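Supplementary Methods, section 5.1.

A reviewer requested that the exact input to the structure prediction be made available. We therefore reproduce it here, unchanged from the version used in the analyses.
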Amino acid sequence: MTHGMRTTTHGLHLGGGRRNWRDDAARYALLPLRLFLGITFIYAGLDKLTDSAFLKDSGTGSVGDMMRTVRGSSAIPALVDLALKSPTGFGYAIALGELAVGIGTLIGLLARLAALGGALISLSLWLTVSWASDPYYYGNDLAYLMAWVPLVLAGAPLLSLDARLHARRRQRSGGYR
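The structure derived from this sequence is encoded token-by-token as follows.
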């Protein structure tokens, strides 16, 4: 006698068949992360570009003052010194980098490259700006770095320009790609 236990599944079968909600959830698992990181980096880039105080060499709220403040506590002071050679240029580079990473991630164009760029931005900010956070988990740049890793590995296989371009190439090559 069975106790109402199901012995069949309705998952994806080798010969085709229906997918269940778990299969769909697995397929779309990275989409919320992609949306969050894409929107956040677009916002961060635009916020920096529209903040007149941030893009200055010195003064309250400037990138120059921020870099001078963190120089003594950063893991790589030489990286801060490099940024201090042209704080305004560094501010623009970070802002435009965040904007490019955010757009690429959000629309899924060169998604792995965009995610790598986001990881590198987060790594550089962790090693400079938030390195002295104590305990370490108070600094958000390390968490952002770790959040980029799955997107570096997986890219944007769904709902992306990368997926559309891949499908187009595959169609042109007769489905052998």
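Helices lie at 21-27, 31-50, 63-70, 77-84, 87-107, 111-128, 140-154, 161-172. These observations are discussed further in the main text.
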